[in-house]
Structures are given as C-alpha cells and as structure tokens.
Amino acid sequence: MGRYDHLVHTFEKQYNHWGDFMPPYQAYFRGQDCMEGAEFYASYRCYMKEAFLDRETNIHTEEEHLCFMGYDMTDPFGSFDAEIELWIGKDPNHLEKHIITEPTIVRIPPFTWHCPLEFKRVTKPVYFEIMLPRGQFGNFARRKDDEGNTRLQFTGLTGVRKCRYEPDKKCTLCGRCWKDGVAKMEAEKKKLEES
User: Distances in Å between the alpha carbon of 174 and those of 13, 25, 158, 193?
Assistant: First the structure.
C-alpha cells in the first residue's frame, strides 16, 4: 500500500437500466462516494439514440458544467452529429431554448434554472459529461405541496438513499426503479384497456 492510494480511484463498471439509448455500462466519479473528501462529481456517458433526459427544470447551489462531444476521441469534432435541446434561465417560467449541434460545454452558474434536456437527434454516439464541484450530486426543483403552494424541494443526492433492490448498497441512479415503474404502469394500462 502506498501513502497516496486514497487519492487514486479505479472506475467500477456501473450497470444502467435507462434504455437502449446508452450502453448498459457507464463510468461515474460520484465524489465522496468514491473517494473520501472529494469535492467533485463527474459522470461519463455515451448517448447512442434520442433520449429525453431531464424533463424537470432544476437548480444547483454550485456551478455545473455540461460537456457534449463526439464519442470518437480521435476525432471529437468530426464524430459529432446530433441535435440536443437545453433550456436555461434565471426564472423557471421564462427559459431560453439552446440547440447544440456541435461540440459544446455549457456553464450553468449557481441557482440558474436549467432543463429540460433532450437529445432530439443522434446519428453518431455523443459523449456527455456532467461536472459539478461538489462531493455529492443533488439539485432543487419546484414542487407543489399538499395545499397547492409551489415550494423549492431538494430532490436528493446520489449515494445518500439506499438502493431499493440491494438495501446494503447506496443508490447509484442506475434507472432500475424507473424502468420497473414504467413497466408496471404499462402493464396496468394494458389491463385497463383489456377490461
């Protein structure tokens, strides 16, 4: 064991269940969940098909960067062939639409509303990286309370809640809960249609 082993993180293969628009395995550096004391979060993803990712407008207390590149790192410019729609603004009711059609990095200042984020056209795989100078990922979204009032709600950190399927592990946002929920809703809808 070396004196600085605690500063070296080897990525684990993390399975995802989100759908066929990305490979079944992704790499993440989940900050403090991967390395004690880390104050940085990054996800490294590949999108191979159209996908509607973040439908809900949200904010972070820290600056966030969203990086979009062609997936072929020997030619990240020539291998980029996609159209991505991202909404940004200071007010969630008045957002600007931005269309990304070439390698781009987007800086989202603290408390700036952003999303929805949709990969509208993908003809070549897109490398998408989220970078946040925080040890754990989390955001705030607008939600209505029981009385119908709109409130800001913290929507959670990865790594804080337990996995629903393996309670001895932390949630990695693998998409399995979402996929199972969609399958259940589709089965219930079909059952209703048949009756």
Answer: 11, 10, 10, 31
DSSP letter (8 states) at residue 188: H
Q: Compute how many other C-beta atoms are within 10 angstroms of the C-beta atom of residue 14.
A: 15
Q: What is the pTM of this model?
A: 0.81
Nearest CA to 96 out of 111, 115, 82, 83 is that of: 115
CATH of domain 5-161: 2.60.120.10
- In degrees and rounded to multiples of 5, residue 190 shows phi and psi of -65, -40
Could you give the maximum distance between any two Cα atoms of the chain, in Å? 66
CB of 118 within 8 A of CB of 126? Answer: no
So where are the chain's domains? 5-161
One-character DSSP codes across 77-92:
TTT--EEEEEEEEEET
Q: What is the Rg, in whole angstroms, of the alpha carbon atoms belonging to the chain?
A: 18
Is residue 77 within 8 Å of residue 70, measured between CB atoms?
Answer: yes
Single out the residue of 133, 151, 134 nearest to residue 142, CA to CA.
151
Model confidence pLDDT, tens digit, residues 159-183: 566 778 888 887 777 777 767 776 7
User: What's at 25, amino acid-wise?
Assistant: Y
Class of residue 106 by CB neighbours under 10 A (exposed 0-12, middle 13-18, buried 19+): middle
